[in-house]
Structures are given as structure tokens and as C-alpha cells.
Design brief:
The chain is of the alpha/beta class. The chain is 40% helix and 17% strand. The protein has a domain of 155 residues: Adenoviral Proteinase, Chain. Helix 4 links the parallel strand 3 and strand 4. Helix 3 packs parallel to helix 6. InterPro entries: Papain-like_cys_pep_sf, Peptidase_C48_C.
Length: 222
């Protein structure tokens, strides 16, 4: 099985045209060109990030997993430029407060980070594999949650009940190059969406990249 997977992954990188469609789900199409961002030292693009978040949400519908909601990678920048009114339609027909965990992948120009809302514990945590603080990002999302709660449920959130925290370099693994941030974000989200401690290291990145190719093509997490 493992050999078959390896040859399939290599074929995804090496054969065919850049515009070939290799996977289609979650209203997204993933081309060979997108998949090639998962090659060593490639920079993951929005399609790969959003597709992987879709896989995590899909898995969370199974028994034994926390209920996960994931915003797409354009949400945070839109929220920053327009405030709540610019993104309130994004959750049309969805009550995000019925979930356990909300994932917010964030693109900071040339760097991917992750914000995680745990509605069970009333925490907002910021995960950055370059160790930068994101306290202002946590505050922006808390304000969004307050407005979303008021608008959609007519319930006032009590901000003082919430804990906001940027994860320190000693708390989470840090990338050892300039290109793995997207993979770190996907794997932070993967472990968190299973309620598992984050125990991987930068050495796992080449393996995770290849694994993600197979998972995206087969629309199934291993």
C-alpha cells in the first residue's frame, strides 16, 4: 500500500499538465499546479489551505471528534478591512456557536498563521510557527464573536470571561525554514481538531507534505 501511495504522489507532481484537475470538493477545484505547492520548500496557496480545512471539517462530523467550523483564508483580511458588517453574510444559515472549535487560517502577506477559538473553554489562541505574537488578532476575532453573537443569537458575550493567548515558542514547534508555515498551520489545525497535543517537529514536514498530497487527491484524511 505504501509503495502505491508513494508512486501516486510522485505522479501527481511529475506527470500531466499544470491545469489538470486532481481533486474537486467543498466548492473548490485543486489543480496539479496547486498540488505542486506541496513539493519540498513550496509555498502552500489558498486552495490547498482551504481544501485541507474542508477535510478537517468533514472529519469532525464523525463520532468522537469535536465539532469544527473553519473560515476560509480570505475571512480575516476581509474582517480587518470591513469589520463585522462586511463578513456577516459569510455565516448565513450557520450558527458558529453550535461548534466546539473554530479554525481561522490567516494569511499575513507572505506568512501563514492560525487562530483557534475553543468555544467550550472560551479561549482564543494564536499559533505562529515563527513565534510572532498575535494578541491584536485575538482581540479582533473576539470583537467579531461579540458582534456575531449579538446579531445572530441576540446574546451578549462577556469579553472578560474569555482568555486570549499567543502561543510561545516553547509551547509549539517552530519552522526551520522560510517555506513551511502553511504546512504548520494545516497540522496545528489537524491536531487541534482531534483534541490532540501538538507533538510534531520540523523534521516531520517533508512527510506531512507528501501525506497531504494523497489526502487531498483522495479527499480523505489518513
Amino acid at each position: 500500500l505504501f509503495q502505491a501511495m508513494e508512486s501516486e504522489i510522485s505522479a501527481a507532481f511529475d506527470s500531466g499538465e499544470p491545469e489538470d484537475i486532481l481533486s474537486r470538493a467543498f466548492k473548490l477545484t485543486v489543480t496539479r499546479e496547486d498540488i505542486c505547492t506541496l513539493q519540498p520548500l513550496g509555498w502552500l496557496n489558498d486552495r490547498i489551505m482551504n481544501f485541507y480545512m474542508g477535510l478537517l471539517v468533514e472529519r469532525s462530523k464523525k463520532e468522537g471528534y469535536p465539532a469544527v467550523y473553519a473560515f476560509n483564508t480570505f475571512f480575516y483580511s476581509k474582517l480587518c478591512s470591513t469589520s463585522h458588517k462586511g463578513v456577516k453574510k459569510w455565516t448565513k444559515g450557520v450558527d458558529i456557536f453550535e461548534h466546539d472549535v473554530i479554525l481561522v487560517p490567516i494569511h499575513l502577506r507572505i506568512h501563514w498563521t492560525l487562530l483557534v477559538v475553543d468555544l467550550r473553554q472560551k479561549t482564543i489562541k494564536y499559533f505562529d510557527s515563527l513565534g510572532q505574537k498575535g494578541d491584536h488578532i485575538c482581540k479582533t476575532v473576539l470583537k467579531y464573536l461579540e458582534e456575531e453573537s449579538k446579531e445572530k443569537r441576540n446574546i451578549e458575550l462577556t469579553a472578560s470571561e474569555w482568555t486570549l493567548h499567543s502561543m510561545g515558542t516553547e509551547e509549539i514547534p517552530q519552522q526551520s525554514n522560510g517555506s513551511d508555515c502553511g504546512v504548520f498551520v494545516c497540522k496545528f489545525a489537524d491536531f487541534i481538531s482531534r483534541d490532540k497535543p501538538i507533538i510534531f517537529t520540523p523534521e516531520h514536514m517533508p512527510y506531512f507534505r507528501r501525506k497531504m498530497v494523497w489526502e487531498i487527491i483522495h479527499q480523505q484524511l489518513l
